[in-house]
Amino acid sequence: MLGAIEAGGTKFVCAVSDNELAIQDRVTIPTTTPEETLGKVFEFFDQFELESMGIGSFGPIDVNQQSETYGYITTTPKTAWQQTDFLGQMKNRYSIPIGWTTDVNAAALGELERGAAKRKSSCVYLTIGTGIGGGAVVNGEPLEGFGHPEMGHLLVKRHPEDTFEGICPFHKDCLEGLASGPAIEKRYGKKAQDLSDDQKVWEIQAYYLAQALMNYTLIISPEKIILGGGVMKQKQLFPLVREQFQKLLNGYVATPALEEYITSPGLNDDAGITGSLILALNELS
Ligand code: ADP
Ligand code: ZN
Fold this sequence. Notes:
By secondary structure, the protein is an alpha/beta fold. Helix content is 35%, strand content 19%. The chain contains nine helices and ten strands. It has helices at 34-45, 86-94, 103-114, 175-179, 181-188, 199-220, 237-249, 258-261, 271-284; strands at 2-7, 11-17, 23-30, 52-57, 98-102, 122-128, 132-138, 141-142, 225-228, 262-263. Helix 3 crosses helix 9 (271-284) and helix 6 (199-220) packs across helix 7. The mean pLDDT is 97. Zinc ion is lined by residues 153, 168, 170-171, 174, 176-177.
């Protein structure tokens, strides 16, 4: 049996499946302290005979196998989880191979194998929610270097009508600082979900997202870009982003047709857990 964790800043989803990824059981656990949350994670997985496991985790995390702190959640703003040896604690408990990457890399992997990017060999997955995070799969492998990509913190050109200072604690007006759900809320004094009818809001939002997508396109040349997360529930954003993207790129790169190229997830909220199960499966081969 395969085990998987989609470890998010708000909740952990744990699941077990067979080798065809048919989920046999799953549970959702609130993210509180490592002791409390991992205690419940152990309670769940202790019920099963696992062969391997996969974890897609919120971060930043250490993915460098050469590093002393490989498998740690490192400088996260969730203070209780700073410098937590997440992977080590899982390995101590279960002594099985465990695949480990970011939540968004796992989501990209899930979408590639089973979702919107099926039959492709590369994709980018971007979530626009409480933060902005992106993962990618290239040639079937999650994209990592000395660490993992931080696609949410790109620097973007300001919209001429936007004077909001931005909320990223590190960079102020990076992409996350200007276009995450909390950035929208702070700028307009209203939650993003209550601004559906305000066209200007989504025009500015699309302007920022399109710039980021252009940069991912220029650097990675993925076969698909998948946009998920709470803010993308505003479906009117998709055509606006495609329109801005086309304008910015200005014909320089011949991308796939934009309706196909920039899309919503095929697995909805299951991209991350599916990708984590695939990480587990990959540990067996
Ligand atoms: P998280 O990033 O914490 O996993 P979400 O992806 O749901 O969770 O992101 C939460 C953010 O998304 C909040 O800032 C919220 O205002 C925004 N959000 C949630 N639902 C919607 C919606 N329907 N339309 C626009 N924004 C939304
Ligand atoms: Zn930033």
